[in-house]
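Support reply, case 0932

Customer input (verbatim):
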Amino acid sequence: MKYAIGLDIGGTKIAAGLVNEKGELGQKEIVKSKAMDKESMYTQVVTCINQLLNQTSIPVGEIYGVGAGIPGKVDRENGVAIFQNNLPWANFPFAKRLKDSLGIDRIVIDNDVHMAAFAEWKRAGLQKNELFVYMTISTGISCSIIQGGEFIRGNGFAGELGLIPVFTPNIEKQMERLEIAASGLALEKRAKKLFSNEAITTSDLFVAFNRGDPDAIQLIDNMAGALAQGVYMINSLLDPQQIVFGGSVSTNNPFLLEIVKEKLYPYMIDEQRHILGEMHVSRDNDQGLIGAGLSVLNS
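Our regenerated output:
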């Protein structure tokens, strides 16, 4: 059995996990990010990996490689983190630095959403030519597109669904980027203002929604309406066989998908409605780790 280390790197936390070629996740370690400067952030990545290696019986010499999911734009061929809006890296030679630190030659990097999408695509078991979309709703909003096992990447920025403007009649502007209308961060900012409470979180808002609070219901209804527009754009352009929703907002509040489906239905013509039965919420939040590990093991 081959093993790889999967990394899921974000602005608030870094996770490292041991992944086998079946896509099973073993030991996992999490540390807080230190995003004040590039070296502090990188040192935390190495710390997280070392914590993982200290907790497993598999020696570093038997690790097949390391896969890293990094937010933003990356140069996969050269292993460079090009641009991240929540990390202090710009044209950071991530793969080279990690090779030097660990003595592991096989390092694969990709966008973090792509890594999670790859794990979900492997799990979905679609036919060779079927098209798969993974959409993440978390701090931001993005999607990845896979057909026949290959990502559709465009010029390197394909899938940035959160940048697309949607109609938002009940928010500050009538047209706003989807990420500003419906991401977890945007929802939290709007809740703080509405409830005049700087301590409220996105999780608190969903608790209030389930309790029947009318203001929380309105906020989440607006969010679902914006998301439905984004999903409809995906469906109209790509007509995928399956869409899986990941990210903390989706996985922690799976009922949200049913609200989105209800709002999506009236937009659709009959030939499009097949997708309503093939829209699913990811079963866990470890898909970024698993996909990162599998990306190495399948390279």
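We compared this against your earlier run and they match. Two observations from our side: The radius of gyration is 19 Å. The chain has two domains: 3-110, 117-281. Please reopen the case if you see a mismatch on your end.
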